[in-house]
UniProtKB/TrEMBL annotation:
The lineage of its organism: Bacteria, Pseudomonadati, Pseudomonadota, Alphaproteobacteria, Hyphomicrobiales. It comes from the Bacteria. The keyword Signal does not apply. This is UPF0391 membrane protein QWZ12_21800. HAMAP family: UPF0391 (MF_01361).
Length: 59
């Protein structure tokens, strides 16, 4: 959940910086938000797959 929170914070910083004209900062924060969100998705999918595997092993 922390990865998702940081991705959202970076996204908001990117939007604010882009709105104020700081395109370099907006681009960096947007890239960081994209990486963090992708990492969050990978971790979430792995956790779901492991949960199903453990559930089938138990039942």
């Amino acid at each position: 959940m922390t990865l998702l929170k940081w991705a959202l914070i970076c996204f908001v910083v990117s939007l604010i910086a882009g709105g104020l004209g700081f395109t370099g900062i907006a681009s960096g924060a947007g890239s960081l938000a994209r990486i963090l969100f992708g990492l969050f998705l990978v971790v979430a999918i792995v956790i779901v797959i492991v949960a199903f595997a453990i559930g089938q092993a138990v039942f």
